[in-house]
């Protein structure tokens, strides 16, 4: 039955990321049939975001208006309908969300979701459902006190990592929840449900509280990644009655409901369309890139830069990196590290050194040699996650290791790109990822000059997918996978489900001479990194 139905079916993936909400539609041969996006700053200027967020005066707090994500969904759906997407043939939809962000819903929100009206904008219907208007997002680094306190109560950083996959990190949702409970007890008290961005977007589609999936749930410092259940101790040291506010976590391939009648009426979805659990953007990218082995790593260059791979046995570090439950293999895990100074920091250098033009940036980058004549830069525009550097600043060193005020513009462009990849190579090694090939994805992966530096710094070939947005594509693939599992009535291995998907294209092989330069440079980079003030 599944085979016959599959032929005509389409699968939809949404990606509610930091700066935009994107959609990718695929057919059952994994060919992309439609793509569209809503950019928060440009398309919804009334929310006043910059890069999709509000940075607060303390330099640490970063939030996004939750209602903006609601408004974006309607706008995105309007664009799909106006573009005559065959939404009536979508058999399943799934999605991706920026990780760690939390959405706080008041008592009674569930009824409002249940009764969604096809004739009214979502924004009008849902403006009253939030206990907190401004959702803390992954860029927030305001919870250092809560991190240290929870680590102490749980028996130290390594113990927290052993249970939850990561030591306590400021952006991880458990620490954010502890902060809100302590500083805004009234908000905590009136909250019925705390959702992640991913499960919230799924809730908008099902018209009910959708569960948090186990992969994105691993980014909270609350889930026992081996038992795949909320950890009692981690919950107890966070806030009271937390389990009921979070609901039970769900496997990432599970059907969490059918699409609400509103979308059938207003956008001609089939009322039978399944909603598959939404997950985090990095887990969805892992699915979109079909990473199966620890030596096949991915580097995603979106607002944040991340590097990740699938792994079998988790060995979480109490110092750095994250282990998440794998989003497509219930027995496996994924290892990841996140660098906050990613695209926005490259944009800063582009604006400072290359008149705001990527073409100019690339010309300057290519005019400089691998190794940048020994110049190394650290561009900490936002408090950094990997390595943890809370104090912002730009630090430049010349070939002799002397601290310098500035580089010439061309050296500046190379320093930012090389520095980011050297940091990734250094820290990925520490969490057991040693790449033999790299799949590049995210907005900046369309830049070939940057990809060339990536291949040389890591000394491995770099591949790209046709579709730079692997998170939305991965969500669409997971929609297909979840649908297939549901139709067959049992778990289907993801690799078998994805058979026949298009191959990735090699973009660059490393140049041997450049590779030697970077092997040597890595040691200098590690030494200099120790000299950067951290707090
Ligand atoms: P997110 O999913 O986190 O919202 P995206 O993956 O959509 O982010 O990537 C957006 C980023 O891509 C922008 O901030 C921009 O800096 C970067 N980008 C887009 N085009 C280029 C380019 N040609 N070169 C380098 N970076 C680019
Ligand atoms: C991962 C992280 C970011 C966000 C936004 O831990 O914080 O990559 O998922 O992309």
Characteristic key phrases:
2 domains; alpha+beta; 535 residues; 21% strand; binds D-xylulose; Nucleotidyltransferase, domain 5; binds adenosine-5'-diphosphate; 24 strands; seven-stranded mixed β-sheet; 22 helices
How many strands? 24
Provide the helix percentage: 25-40%
- What is the number of helical segments per DSSP (H or I, 4+ residues)? 22
Count of distinct structural domains: 2
Which ions, cofactors or small ligands are bound in this entry? adenosine-5'-diphosphate, D-xylulose
Query: Mind summarizing the main beta sheet?
Result: 7 strands, mixed
- The CATH superfamily of the largest domain is identified as ATPase, nucleotide binding domain
* Uncertain stretches: none
CATH names the topology of the largest domain as Nucleotidyltransferase, domain 5
Q: What characteristic shape results from the CA principal axes?
A: globular
The rounded Rg comes to 22 Å
Q: What is the level-2 CATH architecture name of the largest domain?
A: 2-Layer Sandwich
Q: Whole-number average pLDDT?
A: 96
Beginning-to-end CA distance, first to last residue? 60 Å
CATH top level of the largest domain?
Alpha Beta
Strand content is 15-25%
Structural class determined from secondary elements? alpha+beta
């Amino acid at each position: 039955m599944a085979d016959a139905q599959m032929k005509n079916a389409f699968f939809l993936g949404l990606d509610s990321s930091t700066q935009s909400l994107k959609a990718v539609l695929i057919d059952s041969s994994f060919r992309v049939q439609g793509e569209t996006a809503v950019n928060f700053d440009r398309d919804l200027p009334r929310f006043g975001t910059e890069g999709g967020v509000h940075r607060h005066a303390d330099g640490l707090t970063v939030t996004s208006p939750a209602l903006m994500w609601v408004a974006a969904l309607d706008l995105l759906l309007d664009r799909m309908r106006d573009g005559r997407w065959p939404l009536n043939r979508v058999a399943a939809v799934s999605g991706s969300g920026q990780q760690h962000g939390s959405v706080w819903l008041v008592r009674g929100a569930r009824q409002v979701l249940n009764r969604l009206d096809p004739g009214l904008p979502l924004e009008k219907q849902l403006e009253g459902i939030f206990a907190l208007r401004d959702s803390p997002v992954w860029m927030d680094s305001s919870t250092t006190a809560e991190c240290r306190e929870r680590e102490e109560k749980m028996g130290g950083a390594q113990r927290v990592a052993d249970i939850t996959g990561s030591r306590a990190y400021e952006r991880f949702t458990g620490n954010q929840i502890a902060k809100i409970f302590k500083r805004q007890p009234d908000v905590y008290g009136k909250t019925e449900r705390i959702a992640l961005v991913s499960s919230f977007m799924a809730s908008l589609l099902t018209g009910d509280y959708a569960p948090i999936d186990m992969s994105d749930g691993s980014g909270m410092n609350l889930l026992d990644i081996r038992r795949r259940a909320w950890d009692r101790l981690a919950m107890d040291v966070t806030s009271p009655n937390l389990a009921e506010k979070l609901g039970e976590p769900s496997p990432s391939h599970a059907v969490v409901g059918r699409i609400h009648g509103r979308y059938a009426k207003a956008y001609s979805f089939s009322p039978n369309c399944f909603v598959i659990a939404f997950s985090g953007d990095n887990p969805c990218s892992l699915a979109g890139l079909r990473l199966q082995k620890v030596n096949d790593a991915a580097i995603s260059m979106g607002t944040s830069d991340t590097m990740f791979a699938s792994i079998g046995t988790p060995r979480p570090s109490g110092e750095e990196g994250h282990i998440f439950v794998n989003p497509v293999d219930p027995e496996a895990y994924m290892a990841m590290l996140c660098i906050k100074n990613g695209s926005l920091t490259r944009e800063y250098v582009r604006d400072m050194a290359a008149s705001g033009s990527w073409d100019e940036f690339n010309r300057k980058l290519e005019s400089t040699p691998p190794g940048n004549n020994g110049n190394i830069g650290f561009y900490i525009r936002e408090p950094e996650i990997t390595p943890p550097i809370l104090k912002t600043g730009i630090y430049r060193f010349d070939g002799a290791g002397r601290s310098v005020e500035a580089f010439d513009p061309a050296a500046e462009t190379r320093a930012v790109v090389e520095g980011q990849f050297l940091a990734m190579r250094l820290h990925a090694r520490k969490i057991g990822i040693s790449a033999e090939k790299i799949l590049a994805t995210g907005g900046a992966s369309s830049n070939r000059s940057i990809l060339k530096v990536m291949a040389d710094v890591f000394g491995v070939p770099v591949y790209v997918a046709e579709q730079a947005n692997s998170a939305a594509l991965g969500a669409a693939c997971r929609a297909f996978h979840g649908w297939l599992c549901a139709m067959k009535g049992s778990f289907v291995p993801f690799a078998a489900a994805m058979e026949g998907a298009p191959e990735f294209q090699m973009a660059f092989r490393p140049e041997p001479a450049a590779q030697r330069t970077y092997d040597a440079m890595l040691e200098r980079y590690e030494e200099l990194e120790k000299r950067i003030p951290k707090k």
